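[09:14] KT: can someone run the structure on this one? pasting the chain below
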Amino acid sequence: MIHRQALASKKLSRDLGDTLATVVKVVNFIKARPTNQRLFAHLCEDEAHQTLLLHTEVRWLSRGKVLVRFLELQDKILEFLRNQNTLLEQLTDVFWIKTAYLADIFTLYNETNKRLQGSESNILKCKEAIDAFMRKLEYRAGKMSQGHLQHFPLLLQHSGGTVSASLRAEFCRHMTSLQEELKSRFADVDALSKESWVMDPFTSRLEDVEYLGCEDELAELQTDSLSKKYFQENGFKRLWIARGPVVAPKLANYAITKIILPFSTTYLSETAFSALVAIKTKSRNRLEVHSDFRLAVTGITPDIPSLVKGMQAQGGH
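[09:31] RB: done, structure tokens below
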């Protein structure tokens, strides 16, 4: 789901795409040459940051961070490019307004992206995060059309609170197209709305599981006080895995195989690969990493004192 969301973010109008391309061009001009980079860092020595960030297509959070940093160093960038007429003439007031809008949108996008990550993520939680993001977009588009910019802090700051009607219309079109793109990419996930009983079976109606023919099992589960207490203390995952097979076997099998076990994102794979890269470096390329790798990716904390007690201390010879 993270990759679907990242792909949807790439849909930009020609004008907004050109704005992003100009940002990347300026950043590359400063970062690509060591001399420029050192001079720019010296120029920004009184700022919170002394360097710009390179845009990387494959990194999920790259766009938002690049744009925010670019705006933070706006004055220093303009000062640095005073003698670069070709680049400087592209950094108009309209350009900065569009950049601020993109920074706000991609910051919101990054917040949603982070919600999709995590070892406890599942399909239903990811769907809720995407649905919330689309509702936020719809709300912001409505406010933008009315000229209210309070939900676009960077845009409000760099525009002085006034954005032309044509630009507001362009921004609204972008948010609408982004919603449509997300809906098309997550069309198959919308069918999961009926599975909400998995996350909270005790407030669900018996009619919610009619399509499975398991109304009686849900009734048994809802009246089981031990299961309810277990759910409150341990959450729905542990409930279905530990108590579900005993009280509601059919519902538990469906919840585990269809919702809990399937990988909703590639987060676990990505983190495992990062751990492997950190362990097996160029200087340790012959290392047998099986045990170290298991220890790096497990969520279980080893009981070192117990392990030590089970080993015999080796005395001196």
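[09:33] KT: thanks! The chain has three domains: 2-185, 192-260, 279-309.
[09:34] RB: yep, looked fine to me
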